[in-house]
Amino acid sequence: MTRKFFLMIGSAILIQALPVQAAPEQKTEKILSHEAYRLVVAQTDFAAHTVDGSRFLELMKNPKAVTLDLRDEIRYYLSHIRGAKHLGPDIHEDQLAKLVPDKHTPILLYCENSLFPTRNVSLTDVALPQILALGYRQVYLLDNPRGNSWPGLPMIENKAGHDAVDDELARYKSETGQKYVHWGTDAALKARILDKLRPKAEKQIK
Questions:
Q1: Which of 10, 77, 92, 150 could be disulfide-bonded to 201 (CB atoms 3.0-4.6 Å)?
Q2: What three-state secondary structure class fits 69?
């Protein structure tokens, strides 16, 4: 099955993408419809915007290039490519504009699938059509590695953060009696981890 097939399925999740005209002093945001997103995906040349690890490293040498991490905030705090900024899985025009004000800026995207093989749909594939639709043209996504990972990627690892997350998970299990917990499906747990992780992590990742 092709990546576009999986993205058509992913279009069931409506993600913010394009601006619309708003009344004075009133800001309106538009969410792409299923049909609009499918059309954008169908028109996207993924091959032209997909690069391997070596090319990704070359593009990173451009001082104007901006690397964006599409994973959730906790995973970003725990480890990320050196110099990467956190965007997250939801593509909001305002947030993207803050991170990348100039639409001529080269944008380098990566997600969990870019770092090692997983069974999930790549967030880079989902994000690429949306970012292109917002007018950015030099957008490149890091392809899935052909081994366990791409060699040579400059990763920043927050070892203390990993320990903090493990401690919070153990404490939460003890308090709730739950055997299996994950911050991706438990908002309260995620908030607790972020409260504990964010202050130290923000200092370490700079």
A1: 77
A2: strand
